[in-house]
Specification:
CATH architecture of chain B: 3-Layer(aba) Sandwich
Number of helices of chain B: 10
Largest sheet of chain B: 7 strands, mixed
Distance between the termini of chain B: 65 Å
Largest sheet of chain C: 7 strands, mixed
Helix content of chain B: 25-40%
Number of domains of chain C: 2
Distance between the termini of chain C: 48 Å
Chains: A alpha/beta (184), B alpha/beta (256), C alpha/beta (360)
Oligomer: heterotrimer
Largest interface: B-C, 35 and 37 residues
Number of strands of chain B: 9
Radius of gyration of chain C: 21 Å
CATH architecture of the largest domain in chain C: 3-Layer(aba) Sandwich
Strand order of the largest sheet of chain B: 2-1-3-4-8-7-9
Structural class of chain C: alpha/beta
Order of helices and strands of chain B: HEHEHEHHEEEHHEHEHHE
Number of helices of chain C: 13
Helix content of chain C: 40-55%
Chain lengths: 184, 256, 360
Amino acid sequence: MDYHELMIIGTGGRGVLLIGRLLLEAGINKYKHALFFPNYAPAMRGGESECTVVLSNNYINSPVMFNPYFALAMTSSSLQLIEDRIKSGGSLILDGSVISDEIKRNDIKTYRIPATEKAVELGGNQAANMVLLGAYLECTKAISLNFVEDALDRRLQEESKKPILTLNKMALNEGAKLMANYKI
Amino acid sequence: MENNVPDLKKITGRPKLRTDFPGMYCPGCHYGIIARLLCEVIEELGIEGKAIGLAGVGCSFGGMPLTIDVDWTSCPHGRAPAMATAIKRIHPDATVFTVQGDGDLGAIGLGCFMNALGRGENLTTVFLNNAVYGTTGGQMAPTTLLGMKTTTTPLGRELKTSGYPLHIPELAATMKGVSYSARCTVHTPANFQKARKALKIAFQKQLNGIGYSLVEFVSACPPGWGLNPLDCLDFISEKMLKEYPLGEFKNVDSLD
Amino acid sequence: MSDRIFVSGNNAVARGAIQAGCKYFFGYPITPQSEIPEYMSRELPKIGGVFVQSESESGSIYMVYGGGLAGERIMTSTSSPGFSLMAEGISYLAETEIPAVIVNVMRMGPGIGTGGQGGQTDYLQVTKGCGHGGYRAIVLAPASCQEIFDLMQVAFFLADKYRTPVLLVTDFILGQMDEPIELRTLEFEPLPKKDWALTGKEKRGGNRAAHIAAFFTYGGVVNYHMKQIEKYKEIKKAEVRYETYMAEDCDLLIVAYGSSARIARGAVDMGRNKGLKLGLLRPITLWPFPAEQISQLSSKVQKVLVVEDSQGQLIEDVEASIKTSVPVHLLGMWARHNTGGGGIIHPERIIEEVEKINGK
């Protein structure tokens, strides 16, 4: 597929925008066009934070979308904002560790990935976003994990950032594994 | 006849930098004298080739640029220090100076001026204080004396409605970015000579690269004051200089 | 493809300026454009340039005025309330014909507006001569990060060519979104030397430059204005820029600029998939306005829809351009998905509106 659109939504400070940007940075290796739009207007720091990422080999028209094909929800309150908006036939990945809500839609595929639990197990709950990103990439094959790892290497070059880098890479790969073994 | 002519020695003349423009100032105004002084000091320092003047709104606006033969721009009300900031940053070798009146610098442009001092810009400002808005017809300026009649203080400036006269060089002297701050007049020959010295020091500070330098000229505005030119000189001695004492308020060779 | 870099729209403004040879930036912080002064404060000193944080937008614009007079490529950026403060200085730049580039990352609404969300509510202000005295400034309205980067170079060229302030407008969406851009240098025709610049007269062979009132330069007020009118005519003739998308055979023509045009382009594709024959005209220059092109296209369609994230401003120019009785509809800020904070007009909402119009 040469077109991917994704909306990531969660609580500010949990790395919603970060994984969006990483996806974009990595995506540039494979796609002719790419776009990232952070819409954190309603409430910065602690409020709902969302971003859209589009990867495409054709010119990307709208930088914003109301009905994404793919959504990634990190909290229960953000799930409520996005569930009804996902395109029919689309997919939803949610952090099953913190979201227990029942999904009312039966025309979309839902993947409950225990991202926070996995991240804690690996060494820090702040890596839950990476688990979800890994799961997304395994699900869509939008880009290879290597490109994301390269992007992480570029961002976390300093010696002091090494532990975080390692944690993030592990979380990314574990997320992909969770998705590969996922049974709906 | 020739034998009766005493041996004359030329001690002064028309400054080279004085353009052919006939002059536009009212009889008894001191701005023409200050313009001449500027010509002389710039010539003496040999900086006419790299001097860039910025004239504020008011009686400086056209008069100074038309009179003094260096690069000039006129400026919107009170904004000369901001414009001069950019010019000096772009051309650090130029000698950049502003000529601003009391309304221009002290009222509408005070924020702009104080921030330029705060940044310690390497500029020189010639501040012309005649205690009224001259060009617009003699309204109250921030430097109008208490009790002084203007067209917007018809009964005289009152403390409770219009506050206190503003002392710019004293204020500037409190700023760390300022290297030189002085007040002078040209209303007597002796003061003219002192003013020349002050102006020269001010420019020299800029040439030495030391912060902001400022010279205030307490000067006459016969139509604004409703006095004839000679009475204006007395008014300066008796009234203006009581409120605005002459002298140097700051003179340092390096900034803290 | 890795020779490209990812930048936000705000970052593209700063990089485009530097690419154009701008080494002097005078600015003041205001959301949502602060990334521009931040980038400049970091990068300009590295290339021998100067960044000054002014005391206000009024300070910024007069530093820009001074910098322009000094003969260098200079710029500032701000957002709506700050732009109002600059309007006075832009009038002086126009009067004295000093080239400068001013970027306005628009907010929503008058007064304090809303800094943390989109909006295109300065259209009338930027296109109708934002300060006093009746002047025109070229207004560029890019719609992608690459176009922002390219048009910044165009902006500096046009400013120097016509000796005029050039305004470039973006908004929250364009400023914050990231896209890959190619750091390319655009080629332009040679420009005349700035022999009017203030440098000190020794650099001009002893002939001084004096900028007093512009009226003096041209020998009187009428002469001065005739010269300006002539210049504006020349700009109108040569500098209209616009883009069309699927407009050749459309039944309904959408007119939109900036981020709204980008969103509308998405709607055109969505509509075409549904069998709706939509087309788009996107003005790239808001002044000079592509009035003739809109007039021509509108004569071939059944309906025109203006989409703008404002109360209805662009529509005034669209209506004035159209010579026929084709109905002109407006989809404005009330079409945002969230009527509280934030909120965006989505392409889906445009389709909804088209269907509503067609149902009428």
